[in-house]
Design a protein that fits this description.
The protein has about 190 residues and is α/β, with parallel strands linked by helices. The chain has a single domain (about 5-185), classed as DHBP synthase, CATH 3.90.870. Helices cover about 30% and strands about 20% of the residues.
Length: about 190
Amino acid sequence: MLKNKEEIKRVLENDGVIAYVTDTVWGLGCLPSSEKAVKKIYEIKKREAQKPLILMSNEVYHLLNYVKVIPKNGQKLIKKYFPGALTVVTEKSDATPYYITSNMETVGIRVPDNEVFKEICETAPGHVLATTSANLSHQPSAKNYEQALENMGGLVDLVIEDYGCHCKGLESTVVGVFGNELRIFRQGAIKIEL
């Protein structure tokens, strides 16, 4: 489906930022290892430094290196809702740089259910992207290719077409998993009862 895999790879390897469709809203992302690109995302969005990015991939096992052992209740959520509109926040491992987590000891992980996004991750070196939504801070998230171009064209290095794999337009649900405790930070597309 993706026609520009080489270009995507080249942009990411050169500290670039890309915009792309997911199953929820459009996202911005870069390689987690590129502090320069992460800084660029904060500048593009005018995002507050204390708001962390999350890590997304096409497969959960690519993300496991970035977190400590996920508690059992978190594993259950992952089995039930990945791939899908759920972000699980849990304790980060040393592999996750503090410039992604805003110096916090936790990180959010997610596996979106979108074919174009999956292909982008398969193409990306390491198969993981440090991401956030494709909009300026406090503005609505982009919900289609045209809005992503309008919001991010000229600011990011590449806006990738969605090839008809549209997003649903509702943000992901964000759940913190801390030992036996679950904490809902944002009720989004998936309704979770505690």
